[in-house]
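Lab notebook, design round three. We kept the backbone fixed and only want residue identities now. Task for the bench partner: fill in a sequence for the structure below.
Input structure tokens:
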């Protein structure tokens, strides 16, 4: 066995020589001996070297580290390493080496030596002998002596050929020379390319020799060595000019100019951090392609950071963008619509339900740029009744954001919702109440400026603080910046993901896809079908997804690519999430694709010529079919990863469960399937809470606890599963229970409950469970880490090429040796995947990462790359157990998991606040805190809104509190929440309208829910009223935050239930009759107001206003000379912080407001014919108000039972 050993391969010279030396032929193995294992040794492994750590100063250790040594090559050289080099020569001789390749020291110990003369290293010498920063250099004898310049990487390739040349079998002298010029000519070339002049220090040969000796005596070995090199041509040293003896063996050597251009020209500018892509490139508001004449023309806003050529190309593509935004419209088959008609079949009422809400598409421009389009469909205000959303038919429009930045779907969704809301504000409010002249442009440009500013902050952060998204806060979006009091209370926050804060790179799209949601696909089709789709994509087959909802198509197609991205794989083929009809011919393309089509046109597949073999997934019904494939070869072409093989294949997941104790080793695919089943089960608990998973008996607190427990146990569940696979078949009762539990989970996945577990819109598209998403990403990362293993084992280097490339045969051999060969369920997939372009691109990117020395242990690095780096650095095997342990430890330490914690807290709070059981704590404070958190539009608001829609849907029978309290929180959000909440609530307007006709056996409950729904519905359809109320609420928030009170306030204790004209006539001095004396009034301090002793209390028939029919109190009346003292007399200091609010909602008058938070006290009992419910709430202390500026939501710890005649609302803010 012949082994080539390379010593010092981690040094500067060794790293470059290793690229070519690894191509040496005739050796059974190539081993690199290094001092320490780290990033540099990983680069050697990627080239094909086997790395072994050894102490260079330990001769005995060196001998043991070089068994079967044939040739030893050393790159260890220099004045400081002479002793170390001699020790290695002695060790090579003791190990039986036949040749030592180095300088001429081996003759002293009698070992055949090949001495290599290269001259100066052209890619290093200028850094060593000249000061490139100050542009100073030394010339000996005017620098007229000639040198041989050679690039270090070229040395390795020529040496690899020389080791197979019989001329050097017993040693000798090898001369390698790239180019021969004088030192002055070489410096002139640097001056030319850099555009700067050197300042020279000229020395004679004798002066240089004297300085060399002086530096040596001072101990400056490197300085002395530099002068020694500069004086070598003067002394005629060997190796300075070897043109006659130089050998190249046909290797094309780099010229000096090429090397200088590659290594010296402005390296600082090359290393400067680049700016990220702008948040958006173009915003469009486009009408339906067949819009009527009354529909306004398209409106667009360009990015403040734009490329004019790209901008012009995008503007030309506006008609094509409209076809992607309305993919259901087929111009070829649609009837002709003339523009003269004010209305046509494509105009809708607000109450017409449509599945076209929000989705994405990809567009390839003629310039080659790929644009990602984010679409939101909406109904604009009516041209006549602008303030009424529910009046009239109008044409549907689409808001579209085009951007080159991939990912961040939730951020763009929240931006589009804000754009829709401010567009409604612009059309509804009068000009003097407009916040901005062009609100859409103001919002988008400010977001781009915030993104670029946050990117600069992010890039200057220390590494330990990176990996966490930053928050962009916009002030004055709705109310403007002209009124200073509104800037601190009119806030909208957007979470900017890290993918938009770093410069774009070749793998930016992969990283962005890795952060997309995976759960929508798992929720729609279950674990078994999701893994089948993954298998089809890894095999590069053609896949078609079918659904009636483009939102679902886009979400599931993104989830499919997100599964691939967990292994740093990128889909290089055709990808159309929602395909418009004019692109139908692409379905017959003879290459792989992933395309989504709408259900109404799926019948056209039967008449499509050239469709070929394709996998079709019906997302709405969870059915899967194949076309053009032989039934006998389907499992080979699209392997099923949800089946196991223990002495044969099983046809169902249940048979896999039955073999848990058979003693067969667990496979990564089986572990992946089991973990995904657990994740889906935990996700359903988190999404549906108490209603669907516990038959209406489990509270939100219990559901939250169950979710937390399940997610924490997922990492241990896999370990138990692996241990069970390796155990004997004799299981105790606990093992049987474990198997039964898995069977239950599989049953849930295979046959979901048609009523509560069906994949509806709320569960599949709207609910975002970041905690479960993180667990799913970890599970897929573990699977891909086991699938790829160590990349170095299936790399090879072609002769004459320095780059390592994929060796497909080595890959299959490696997987076969790992126990995943013929007969295993994953083997067909490995055979298919080995032949794909995806694998070749994956290997190419990994090699480039190592070659370019990209950092792989930063917080921004994907989890897959972090795990690979950790395994190689610590020499850990890529076995399933080790991979699971490392992956979960690194994931737990990731700072990006904080967003999952914040989001889960928001969902948990919303679930508890809308639960059947009384809230444990201060209900009003919790609601106020939730509203404050919902100012973050991109994650928390969408998550809380999904909880409210689930609660409203699940409000029948005994669950009536779910719907009622959800409506109360929604009303608070409409009053005090961000602008995007208006669009969020408009999406569920049909659900709120249905709650106006709520049915229940208890009439009082029915009236409460209906009144609450009517109040919210009235706000949403009357946009003028809604925006005015939000303005008043913002002013009230500012007053609370600054401890300010209005100059004039209305006494909230009195409510008049008669028309104003009747009251005016009764109060006028010239009116008929006499003005009745004011009866006793309840005092805020609990005592009766003073009355006039001489005037008896009026009777019922003497009350002209019909306000005070009767009144009883619990304390006696105190006489007073002035009957108005009870109203105008100020409170004494000891009770100045107390105030009463009457909780009565008068239909058509003031909306419900928000109260203050304080310590409750006993209410005053008032007995009147209409029985108003009086809820006492003390005013908070000034310090409390200052510290809790958003404590605005007024609700008791247990919501009061409001009689039907009163209504559920409060109006403490005095909103008229």
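Proposed sequence:
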């Amino acid at each position: 066995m012949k082994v080539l050993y390379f010593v010092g391969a981690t040094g500067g010279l060794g790293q470059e020589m290793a690229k070519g030396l690894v191509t040496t032929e005739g050796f059974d193995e190539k081993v690199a001996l290094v001092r320490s294992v780290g990033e540099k040794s990983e680069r050697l492994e990627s080239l094909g070297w086997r790395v072994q750590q050894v102490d260079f100063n330990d001769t005995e250790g060196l001998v043991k580290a070089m068994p079967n040594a044939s040739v030893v090559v050393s790159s260890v050289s220099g004045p400081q390493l002479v002793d170390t080099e001699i020790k290695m020569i002695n060790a090579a001789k003791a190990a039986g080496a036949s040749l030592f390749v180095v300088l001429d020291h081996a003759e002293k110990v009698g070992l055949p030596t090949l001495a290599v003369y290269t001259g100066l290293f052209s890619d290093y010498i200028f850094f060593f002998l000249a000061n490139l920063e100050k542009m100073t250099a030394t010339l000996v004898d005017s620098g007229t002596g000639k040198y041989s310049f050679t690039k270090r990487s070229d040395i390795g390739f020529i040496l690899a050929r020389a080791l197979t040349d019989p001329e050097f079998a017993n040693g000798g002298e090898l001369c390698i020379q790239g180019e021969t010029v004088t030192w002055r000519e070489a410096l002139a070339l640097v001056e030319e390319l850099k555009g700067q002049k050197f300042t020279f220090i000229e020395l004679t040969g004798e002066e240089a020799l004297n300085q060399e000796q002086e530096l040596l005596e001072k101990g400056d070995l490197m300085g002395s060595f530099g002068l020694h090199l500069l004086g070598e041509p003067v002394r005629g040293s060997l190796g300075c000019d070897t043109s006659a003896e130089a050998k190249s063996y046909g290797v094309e050597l780099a010229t000096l100019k090429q090397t200088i251009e590659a290594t010296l020209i402005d390296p600082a500018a090359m290393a400067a951090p680049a700016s990220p892509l702008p948040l958006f490139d173009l915003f469009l508001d486009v009408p339906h392609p067949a819009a009527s004449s009354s529909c306004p023309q398209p409106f667009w806003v360009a990015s403040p950071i734009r490329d004019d050529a790209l901008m012009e190309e995008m503007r030309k593509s506006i008609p094509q963008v409209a076809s992607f935004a309305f993919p259901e419209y087929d111009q070829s088959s649609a009837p002709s619509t003339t523009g003269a008609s004010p209305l046509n079949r494509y105009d809708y009422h607000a109450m017409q339900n449509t599945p076209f809400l929000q989705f994405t598409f990809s567009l390839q421009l003629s310039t080659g740029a790929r644009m990602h389009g984010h679409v939101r469909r909406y109904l604009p205000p009516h041209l006549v009744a602008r303030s009424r959303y529910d009046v009239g038919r109008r044409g549907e429009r689409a808001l579209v954001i085009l951007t080159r930045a991939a990912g961040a779907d939730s951020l763009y969704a929240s931006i589009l919702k804000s754009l829709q809301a401010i567009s409604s504000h612009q059309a509804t409010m009068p000009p003097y109440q407009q916040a901005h002249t062009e609100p859409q442009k103001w919002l988008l440009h400010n977001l781009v400026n915030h993104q670029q500013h946050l990117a600069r902050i992010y890039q200057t952060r220390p590494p330990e603080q990176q990996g966490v998204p930053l928050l962009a806060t916009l002030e004055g979006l709705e109310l403007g910046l002209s009124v200073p009091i509104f800037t601190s209370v009119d806030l909208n926050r957007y979470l900017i993901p890290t993918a938009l804060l770093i410069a774009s790179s070749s793998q930016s799209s992969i990283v962005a896809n890795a952060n997309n949601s995976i759960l929508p696909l798992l929720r729609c089709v279950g674990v078994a079908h999701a893994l089948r789709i993954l298998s089809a994509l890894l095999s590069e087959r053609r896949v078609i997804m079918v659904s009636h909802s483009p939102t679902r198509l886009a979400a599931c197609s993104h989830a499919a690519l997100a599964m691939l991205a967990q292994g740093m794989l990128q889909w290089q083929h055709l990808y159309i999430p929602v395909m418009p009809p004019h692109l139908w011919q692409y379905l017959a393309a003879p290459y792989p694709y992933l395309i989504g089509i709408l259900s109404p046109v799926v019948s056209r597949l039967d008449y499509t010529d050239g469709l070929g073999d394709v996998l079709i997934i019906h997302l709405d019904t969870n059915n899967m079919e194949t076309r053009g494939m032989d039934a006998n070869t389907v499992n080979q072409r699209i392997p099923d990863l949800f089946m196991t093989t223990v002495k044969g294949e099983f046809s169902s997941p249940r048979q896999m469960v039955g073999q848990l104790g058979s003693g067969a080793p667990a496979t990564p695919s089986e572990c992946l399937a089991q973990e995904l089943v657990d994740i889906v089960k935990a996700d359903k608990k988190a999404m549906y809470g108490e209603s669907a998973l516990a038959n209406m008996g489990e509270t939100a607190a219990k559901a939250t606890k169950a979710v937390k427990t399940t997610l924490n146990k997922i990492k241990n569940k896999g370990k138990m599963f692996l241990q069970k696979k390796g155990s004997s078949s004799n299981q105790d009762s606990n093992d049987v229970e474990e198997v039964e539990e898995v069977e239950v989970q599989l049953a849930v996945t295979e046959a979901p409950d048609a009523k509560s577990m069906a994949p509806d819109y709320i569960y599949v598209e709207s609910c975002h469970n970041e905690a479960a998403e993180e667990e799913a990403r970890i599970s897929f990362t573990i699977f891909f880490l086991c699938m790829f293993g160590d990349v170095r084992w299936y790399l090879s280097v072609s002769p004459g090429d320095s780059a390592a490339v994929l060796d497909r045969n080595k890959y299959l051999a490696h997987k076969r040796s790992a126990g995943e060969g013929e007969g295993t369920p994953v083997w067909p997939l490995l055979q298919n995947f080995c032949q794909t372009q995806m694998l070749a691109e994956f290997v190419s990117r990994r090699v480039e990462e190592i070659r370019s020395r990209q950092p792989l242990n930063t917080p921004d690095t994907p989890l897959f790359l972090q795990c690979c780096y950790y395994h190689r650095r610590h020499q850990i095997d890529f076995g399933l157990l080790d991979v699971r342990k490392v992956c979960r430890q690194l994931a737990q330490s990731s700072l990006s998991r904080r967003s999952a914690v914040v989001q889960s807290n928001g969902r948990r709070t919303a679930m508890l606040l809308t639960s059947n059981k009384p809230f444990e704590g201060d209900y009003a404070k919790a609601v106020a805190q939730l509203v404050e958190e919902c100012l973050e539009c991109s994650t928390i608001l969408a998550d809380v809104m999904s909880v409210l829609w689930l609660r409203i849907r699940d409000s029948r029978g005994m669950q009536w509190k779910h719907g009622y309290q959800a409506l109360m929180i929604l009303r608070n959000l409409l009053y005090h929440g961000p602008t995007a909440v208006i669009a969020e609530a408009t999406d569920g307007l049909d659900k709120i309208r249905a709650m106006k006709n709520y049915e229940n056996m208890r009439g009082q409950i029915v009236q409460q829910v209906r009144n609450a729904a009517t109040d919210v519905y009235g706000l949403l359809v009357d946009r003028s009223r809604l925006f005015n109320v939000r303005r008043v609420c913002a002013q009230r928030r500012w007053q609370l935050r600054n401890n300010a009170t209005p100059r004039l306030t209305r006494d909230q204790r009195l409510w008049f239930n008669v028309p104003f004209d009747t009251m005016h006539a009764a109060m006028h001095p010239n009116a008929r009759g006499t003005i009745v004396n004011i009866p006793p009034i309840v005092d805020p301090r609990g005592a009766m107001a003073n009355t006039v002793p001489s005037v008896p209390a009026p009777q019922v028939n003497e009350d002209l206003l019909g306000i005070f029919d009767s009144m009883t109190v619990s304390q006696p009346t105190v006489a007073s000379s002035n009957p108005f003292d009870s109203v105008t007399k100020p409170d004494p200091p000891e009770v100045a912080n107390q105030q009463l609010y009457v909780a009565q909602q008068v239909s058509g008058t003031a909306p419900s407001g928000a109260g203050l938070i304080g310590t409750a006290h006993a209410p005053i009992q008032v007995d009147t014919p209409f029985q108003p419910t009086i809820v006492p709430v003390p005013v908070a202390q000034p310090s409390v108000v200052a510290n809790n500026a958003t404590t605005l939501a007024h609700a008791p710890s247990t919501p009061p039972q409001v009689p039907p005649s009163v209504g559920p609302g409060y109006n403490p803010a005095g909103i008229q």
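Keep this in mind before ordering anything: DSSP finds 44 helices and 31 strands in the chain.
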